[in-house]
Amino acid sequence: MADITVRSASIGSPDSRSSLHKLMQRKSTIAFLMALPLILLITVLVAYPAGYAVYLAMLNKSMTKFVWFKNFDFLFTRDTFWMVVYQSCLFAITAVIFKALIGFIVAHFVHNIPSKGQRKWRGMLLVPWVIPPAMSTLAWLWLFDPSYSAFNWLLQPFGLGPIPWLGETGWARFSVILVNVWVGAPFFMIMYLAALKSVPEQLYEAAAIDGATWWQRIWYVTLPMMRNIIAITALFSTIVTFANFDIVRVLTKGDPLNTTHLFGTWAFRLGIESNDIPLGSAVSLFMVPILAVAAVFILRDITKRGSEV
Amino acid sequence: MADAAVTSPAGAPTRARYGSMSRDRRWALRWSYFFLILFAIFFLTPPIYMFITSLKTSQEISAEINPWWVFNPTLNNYITLLTQNIFLKFFLNSAIVAVCTVTITMCISVIAAFSLARMKFWGSATLATGVFLTYLVPETLLFIPLFKMFAWVNETLGIQLMNNWWTLIILYPTLTVPFCTWIMIGYFASIPKELDEAALIDGATWIQTLTKIFIPVALPGIIAATIFCFTVSWAQFLYPLAFTTSTSELVLPVGIITTLIKGDVFNWGQIMTGALLGAAPPLIIYAFLMDYYIAGLTAGATKG
Lengths: 309, 304
Prior knowledge:
The complex is a heterodimer of chains A (309) and B (304). Chain A has 309 residues and is mainly alpha-helical. Chain A folds into 2 domains: 15-56; 70-308, MetI-like (MetI-like fold, Orthogonal Bundle), CATH 1.10.3720.10. Chain A is built from 15 helices and no strands. The radius of gyration of chain A is 27 Å and the shape is flat. The two termini of chain A are 32 Å apart. Helix content of chain B is 79%, strand content 1%. Chain B has a two-stranded antiparallel ribbon with strand order 1-2. In chain B, strand 1 (261-262) and strand 2 form a beta hairpin. At the A-B interface, helix 2, helix 4, helix 5, helix 6 and helix 7 of A face helix 1, helix 4, helix 5, helix 6 and helix 8 of B.
């Protein structure tokens, strides 16, 4: 049976070689045409603006003169700029670490319970990720309200004075990070849960027979098996967190005294609200180095896995 | 033989250990539930508080009573918002933008993914990587140059892109197409080659192979990508905030934040109602299609 099909196929091919050749030639043309909308979209609305941002950042405020790196020089002399750099790094690093930790812990607990109930818990715990961040941040804004804060009401009986959640630099930074962790931790949880499911049960059984404690099981079995997913999720999240806009914009708008601004929100303040497009553009370009580093690592991981398969 | 010799003397102590292990397990389970409840409280407090506040009157909100309980539940906030034309307009704008974005994105990305995954042309591998890189470019980097580009379009071509809700239909695909193409490439690449070879031998054209074989087989992936697309375009906040200003051109998230928050007078009952209604469409989709939603989430990093 198999013989016949193979023979008929090999008979068929010499006759149609020329037309097959033509088809192959046409194939790449069709393929290119099919990808053309994608190529156009990426060039016109992503690649070109990204390059244009570099050019814009080198114009003077009224955009009439090319001033090379004057805008950057100006930024370096301003305290607010260094504060934004500090806050962006603090925000991104702290938030990603806590998201990863909470995600890891919660994923473990969900993985621990009988699989019948896992779906329900997973569904419930992913809700913060599903709600549009601008909307859920409004709920946090209300929870942090200076005069009606529901958190402060809960703390009152314990004698803990009203906390200025958004009014004082330290607390405002804490609040912004807290909300970001709240939004992002479920994503880590889902990724880690998927990774945990792919760790073969036998490894844990072997570890248990060898007398490994729970800590050793996590350190020597779970973490090495999940290393890839942990790295790639953390890198993704670093990019998204660093470029965050919604949460800070809705929660504090950069206040008090610009201390909670990130690159994105400060660029918006300067570029759109204060109408200084070149300066805003220069600020937003400072996100590029971090993004580039993360992108290189992610790409390396992807190509490595591609060659393994 | 050797096996039996090893197990039989060790039999008794193993059983004792086994008992302690199952007791450990029971305790681990209890602790798991305890901590899961704690985390669930942390994760669900804001949406629940949103709901609680949405049922309150302004008097109750400003009263000095337990904010975590509704004493006189009322649906007034919902009625006021849903009978306001402007709020319905936001909703409509959001819905049209989201539906158009999903349609455009899926057309572009499914076709492009098919050509990149299967047909290959000069530079197609580079393009696939490029698509992925575009996904990593955040919108916070692009909105200022786009702002300037739109001004330029207005000056030279006379098309006013600023302050029009349909501009968002042009912009949102930049956020959704790269990711959707990327996960569709992953799904298409996992379809066995024999399947499309068989179709080609039977004389199917490339378009037929795509519509009759690839799309049906990769349907779960397409649903996941569609859901992703919808949620992203529904939740997008920066582009509408930067590019639309007139009240009638706003989409829901921006509309709620700019029209309901008036100066220092915060009508929290209405704001929370609006936020809850704004969060409802993604939540409803999530409730019904959770598995596809999660598949789409994890596909980005685990596939490809």
